[in-house]
Design brief:
It is built from 15 helices and no strands. By secondary structure, the protein is mostly helical. Helix 2 (9-24) packs across helix 14, helix 4 packs antiparallel against helix 11 and helix 5 runs antiparallel to helix 10.
Length: 292
Amino acid sequence: MLRRIRQSPYTAYIALFFGIICIGFSAIFVKIANVPGSVSSFYRLFIAAILIIPLWIYRGMKIPSSGDIWLIFGGALFFAFDLFLWNTAILLTSAATATLLANNAPIWLGLITLVVLRQKLPRKFWVGLLVAIVGLNILVGIEAWRTMNFNRGDLLSLAAGFFYATYLLFTLDSRKRVDTVTFMTFSVVFMVILLFFTNLFLGNPFFGFSAKTWLALVGLGLIAHFLGWISINFALGHLAGTNVSVTLLSQTIITAILAIIILGETISLNQIAGGALILTGVYVVNRKNSKG
């Protein structure tokens, strides 16, 4: 009976939407914690590591090959950069805008594929890129382009999307050979070590926070990272990857709604219009090629 429930596509969709709601809280928890981006990134991963390591041990403590370990480590380096930049960006711009702009990874992934890997891209990529660029211009505003005075948080969010795309590209092969729990365990542990030394170098505090901040950091690690990504990775094992990647774009909508309710943020007309176009562009890039 339990096996039939796990194999049901409805269970996978429930897990997917639950995971999206969980990661939709990411920017909200970062805003509430209000600590340096490298600190909130560290605790997000540290708390997730405390939870996932026992699961990895319970499942038999599988060890990837040395080649895959190096790929996971390289990916962890880029993902750590992504979280560092994004969590910093959230404190400098609205939670909804930071989440939206950081979701441009498919665009960056296509450009990296074109420039670095020299692979030809389909027409849908260029259509999606054009639509996303138009949306970005509307979101940022004509005045920002005229004065070249851009919001630092917006720029950091765009850069975060680039590093996440690099992480995806770097770990593509290892994800095919390494199971989800093992991959997440090694990736999270590597990132915890990287961010620990990053915070030491920057002189950021690890303690002395308010109860409100600690609760937000626990929520970031438990809800946003552990429960969110475990659920999404479960869905990836039962649903088409393209469907999941497109559905993940709804994280932006979840974050925007939560930001209005919890943080009291407002969304302007140009943010709505620009955001809708960016999401449309990313959707087009993710969309499966139709037959015929």
